[in-house]
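Quick one, probably user error.
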């Protein structure tokens, strides 16, 4: 679906590149979480995939096409919802009338269903909405376009607690086998239960790239007061009722819920240990 090969991109010649000799491949189908430090180039990467920016070096293809060429057939298959955006002062129906011709798979029925999920009026005026409401309205339109690739940058910023819960329902209900959703976020607790795949990056390379199912087959995320468990853990941090730890799931059956915060902290603190532990566990089971 997405092939990124040794790209370099920076904002100005005198600045350090945001991405340097960076490569990543993403298969079609599923919900991917893109995690990284501030300044690691996550938003930039989404804009590059969408063809809104061009790498100084390297190449990007989406379903075999170069998004930099901005061909209508390619753009019809990609929709990006940036973290910050503006909407015209129009009624929703007028906004849809103007924009839906660019997306041949747009569904008015899907739009109505998504708006219902967020409890929004289909006849709303976009100019009168709060930022959080605008984000809901725009994401509803984005999903209703039914593009094979949907890119979301910090989609839960500006949403209240009920809105975040509905966002999860909204994404899961719109998934199909051939749709790929790539979500860049720092709000990991907003998306941890809907992800199929986790990608953790810095500006130069991918630190961790694994499905949630495989991650939970290999690792456990626990809260414990047992000193031996804490000592043997791959990673630990204090919690109110003991320590939160990441440890090996040696039998591959006692699966826990994923804790993206812990996984992210481990990946940043000691990526070599994380990947070595997973690789060694694979070997032990063969």
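Nope, works fine. Designed sequence:
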């Amino acid at each position: 679906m997405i092939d990124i090969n040794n790209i370099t991109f920076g904002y100005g010649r005198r600045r350090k590149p945001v991405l340097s000799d960076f490569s990543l491949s993403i298969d079609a189908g599923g919900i991917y979480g893109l995690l990284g430090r501030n300044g690691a180039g996550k938003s930039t990467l989404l804009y590059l995939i969408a063809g809104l920016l061009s790498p100084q070096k390297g190449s990007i293809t989406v379903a075999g096409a170069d998004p930099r060429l901005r061909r209508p057939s390619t753009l019809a298959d990609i929709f990006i919802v940036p973290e910050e955006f503006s909407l015209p002062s129009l009624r929703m129906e007028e906004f849809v009338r103007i924009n839906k011709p660019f997306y041949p798979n747009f569904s008015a029925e899907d739009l109505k269903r998504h708006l219902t999920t967020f409890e929004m009026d289909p006849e709303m005026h976009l100019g009168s909405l709060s930022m959080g409401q605008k984000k809901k309205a725009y994401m509803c339109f984005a999903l209703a376009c039914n593009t094979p690739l949907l890119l979301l940058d910090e989609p839960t910023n500006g949403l209240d607690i009920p809105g975040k819960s509905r966002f999860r329902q909204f994404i899961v209900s719109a998934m199909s086998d051939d749709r790929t959703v790539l979500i860049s976020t720092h709000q990991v607790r907003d998306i941890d239960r809907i992800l199929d795949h986790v990608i953790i990056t810095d500006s130069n390379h991918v630190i961790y790239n694994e499905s949630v199912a495989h991650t939970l087959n290999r690792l456990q995320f626990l809260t414990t007061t047992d000193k031996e468990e804490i000592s043997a853990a791959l990673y630990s941090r204090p919690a109110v009722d003991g320590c939160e730890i990441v440890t090996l799931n040696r039998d591959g059956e006692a699966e826990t819920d994923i804790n993206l915060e812990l996984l992210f902290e481990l990946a940043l603190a000691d990526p070599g240990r994380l990947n070595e532990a997973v690789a060694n566990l694979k070997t032990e089971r063969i």
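The longest helix spans residues 271-285.
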